[in-house]
Amino acid sequence: MDKVVVVGIAVAALFATAGVLWLSTSMETLDEIAEQLGAKEFSLWNPLFPDYTVPGHEESVGSTLVLSLASTVMVFGAAYLVGKLLIAKRGKR
Predict the structure, then answer these.
(1) pTM for the full model?
(2) ∠ Cα 55 61 66 (to 5°)
(3) Cα 58 from chain centroid?
């Protein structure tokens, strides 16, 4: 794996960690603002971990942090895989 990719994942992990730690203590969350504006919640699909929480650990910053880091790695992994597939496809032309 390229050094740039590893650095990108590390930087994204730092931003995810800072975001979770900072926003988990935020007094005004997006849900509260949506309620004030009268927005209604509805699901298009049922995610495995709704609202970045593990069932039974809804108020845990640790579980939110682990899920955000796992999501970050999954997104980077998917992007890396798509990039490799596109490069391989281009080489076959």
Answers:
(1) 0.61
(2) 75
(3) 16
